[in-house]
Amino acid sequence: MTEPSQAKVDMEKLVSLCRRRGFIFPSSEIYGGLSSCWDYGPLGVELKRNVKDAWWRAMVQQRDDMVGLDSSILMHHQIWQASGHVEGFSDPLVECKGCHLRFRSDELEGNKCPDCGGELTEPRMFNLMFKTFIGPVEDEASVVYLRPETAQGIFVNFENVLNTTRKRLPFGIAQVGKSFRNEVTTGNFIFRSREFEQMEIEYFVKPGTDKQWFDFWVEERVNWYVSLGIKRENLKLRPHTKEELAHYARECSDINYLFPMGWAELEGIANRGDFDLVQHANSSGKGLSYYDEEAKEHIVPYIIEPSAGVDRTFLALLCDAYDEDEAEGEKRVLLHLHPDLAPIKAAVLPLSKKEPLASFAREIYASLRQQWMVQYDDAQSIGRRYRRQDEIGTPFCVTADFESLEDKQVTIRERDSLRQIRVPIDSLKATLRAKLGGEDLFVLPDGGKIWKE
Ligand code: ATP
Predict the structure, then answer these.
(1) Which residues line ligand 1 (CB under 6 A)?
(2) How are beta strands 330-335 and 143-146 bridged, if at all?
(3) If you average pLDDT over every residue of the chain, what do you get?
(4) Which among 183, 332, 211 is positioned nearest to 273, based on CA atoms?
(5) pTM above 0.90?
(6) What are the angstrom distances between the C-alpha of 206 and each of 163, 165, 175, 203, 253?
(7) Which end of the chain is more exposed for a tag (fewer CB within 10 A), N or C?
(8) Ligand 1 center to 446 CA (angstroms)
């Protein structure tokens, strides 16, 4: 549920920027589109990959209590019985008797159709899982579901991971992957779609230490968003009340973000107790437990689950990065994206298309792209080219001019401050690496000088 509030960017501007610059397209567009499904274009795919890489680096690579997993989307149908999804993963659906639009009754304020004011049907529970069949025979025995969350793939691999990694409690298993939900109400761009990606952690702890680890993960996850440049004032914790806690949860808190349509869930963190391992142990007949060396007994770990959405993080990052200002005498739109996330790290811009400057600049481009996603742009005025890069969040532009041919130096322009330095080509790569890593632009390499304050 969203809670209305005043965000700084409106969704239309973002949707239009995403479309215009190739971040996101509606799915199946030439056939009229497919409701609530989206395609990530050339820049979108880079940003999305950078989000997932940043998460993996911080949550798996840089921690010694975490390992990764990539479980399959199609899984044994009994998993969804044991997890409670077949029985309970549903939303209450009502239909307008007049215009036949459908709504989630828990999201409606009154008992009339919000579109035409017509009378609504009684709510019926609508299961959100997509159902299909495995193999050639379409009968009950061959039913499988597209997973509505990645978490279950982790629970059912608990023993495999434990036996192969010899991890001791507390430790976590992390997974990034697609999930599918046949949502009743969709919309708000990529905020709620029917096919989306999740970044989930199941963190296994000793019972009794669960409260402490729950608090740890809430803080850790908020800090992760802030480390990527999201403003702290645009994030808010929303602890769940006892009444709204899911059946499996002992405690739960959402990390909400101030999206254009209001405060809404970016990530959910839950203390799931031993629910999942007990359910799967009972249903599969396998004892899913952990041998506690100290206590010399088998225990069933409790699980803390920080569950984030890739697409919602993508949207939050865009909302937070979007800005309009004036630069070099012109209005500009810019994305203040963190350098780790920017789809393009640098653009090489020769002042003219003429030789030998073009070959000179192309050589720089060829060298930089060995390391980073870099664009080469020689079309239109330099001002227009800067604007194009600002609008897609490129942190640095490297400009080669006719003097560069003589002094073997180029200028580096910073997106946010518009400051410029001039550096020898020999130290360009090292300088860019340092600036992309957060070093101040005015820390100069040998032979470098300040070009524009
Ligand atoms: P909501 O209340 O918004 O439907 P949820 O509480 O059902 O979300 P969870 O089951 O906790 O969501 O899923 C964890 C995360 O997965 C969410 O915080 C969100 O980032 C992402 N997510 C869930 N459903 C969708 C969806 N339909 N589209 C995009 N992302 C989603």
Answers:
(1) 149, 181, 183, 192-193, 196, 198, 265-268, 307-309, 311-312
(2) unpaired
(3) 95
(4) 211
(5) yes
(6) 18, 18, 21, 10, 20
(7) C
(8) 50
